[in-house]
Amino acid sequence: xxxxxxxxxxxxxxxxxxxxxxxxxxxxxxxxxxxxxxxxxxxxxxxxxxxxxxxxxxxxxxxxxxxxxxxxxxxxxxxxxxxxxxxxxxxxxxxxxxxxxxxxxxxxxxxxxxxxxxxxxxxxxxxxxxxxxxxxxxxxxxxxxxxxxxxxxxxxxxxxxxxxxxxxxxxxxxxxxxxxxxxxxxxxxxxxxxxxxxxxxxxxxxxxxxxxxxxxxxxxxxxxxxxxxxxxxxxxxxxxxxxxxxxxxxxxxxxxxxxxxxxxxxxxxxxxxxxxxxxxxxxxxxxxxxxxxxxxxxxxxxxxxxxxxxxxxxxxxxxxxxxxxxxxxxxxxxxxxxxxxxxxxxxxxxxxxxxxxxxxxxxxxxxxxxxxxxxxxxxxxxx
Length: 383
Hints:
Elements: H1 7-12, E1 20-24, E2 31-36, E3 41-49, E4 52-61, H2 66-81, H3 86-95, H4 99-109, H5 116-134, H6 144-155, H7 159-178, H8 204-215, H9 220-232, H10 236-240, E5 247-248, E6 253-256, E7 267-270, H11 273-284, H12 306-315, H13 325-336, H14 341-348, H15 353-356, H16 364-382
Antiparallel strand pairs: 1-2, 2-3, 3-4, 5-6, 6-7
C-alpha cells in the first residue's frame, strides 16, 4: 500500500536484496524514493510527455530531505503541465557544462569531504594544470586522447605529478557520470608512470648528529616538533596541529581525533617515557594557546617547519631526508627492535596491512642474523 513519503519513512526503508526498488508517494503522483541494494537512496519523479515516460532523479538522500524533494517535485509537475520536459532540459544544460564548471561542482560537492591537505593539493592541480589546459572544453567533449596527451606532457618533467593529475581527473569524471553530466570517463585506462616508494631512513650516525643538533637549536618550537616526530612516528600534520587536550601525560597516551588522522578514525597510541618527558618540558613553558605549536597569534597552529628542517639538516650534515622520512626511520627502529608488522602498523595508524608491508624488507637483516645463529649451532653440533 502506498504511503506518504516522509523523512521517517525514507530512513526506515529496507534495501532490496539486489538491484533497486522504488516506493511511490500516496499523494503526489509519480513522486517516489529509489533504494538500491547498496542502500543508496534518491528521490525521483516519473512523468509522461509527448507519449513518452520519463524518470527524473531529483537528488540523493540525505542531501535532499523528503520535504525539499516533495516541493521540487511539485515545481517540476507544474513545468510539465506547461509542456516542458525537465529531463531533456537537464541533459541539455549538463551537456553544455565546461570542464571549468565541472571542477567548480567538484569543489562544491565533493572536495569538502576530503582532508584539508588533500583539498589544497586538488585545487592546486585544478588551478595550475586542469583549467589552463582543459577548462574551456565541454566536459562531455573531453576524450581519452585529451587526457593522455596531458599526462604525457606533464610526465616529461614530473612523472609522479602526472599520475596525480590523471587520478584527480578520473575522480572528477566518475562523479560527473554519477551526476549525469557525462556518459563515460575519459581518464579511465591511462597508463600511469611507474612509481617507486622512497625507502630513506636515517642512518645511526645521522640520527645521532640530528639529535645533538636539536638539543641546542635556538628555535625551540621547531626543534621540539622534530623531536616529537622522531619519538612518535606521527605525520607532520598530526604533530603540528596537535592540541594539549589530546594528551594524557599521566596515563601516557596520545589520542588523535579522526579529523586530524589520514584514515579519518580516532587513533590512540602510547607514548614513550622520553616523549612524555619532552611534552612535560614543553608544558612547563606553555603559552595560553591550546596548540602544542601555536602560530604568532596563538589562535592557529604553526603552518610548517620546512625552512627550520632544512637549516637543521644542514647543521647536522644530513642530506636527502624529508620530514616524512622521520616516520620511516621510526618504523625501521621498531623493526630492529624485533616488533611485528601488525604492531608497527598499529603504532603508525595504518588501517591496511599492505601499507605497513612496505617495511617488510627491513626484516632481512634480523632474519639473516637469526638464521646465522642457527647455522652456527648446527656447525658446532656437526663437529
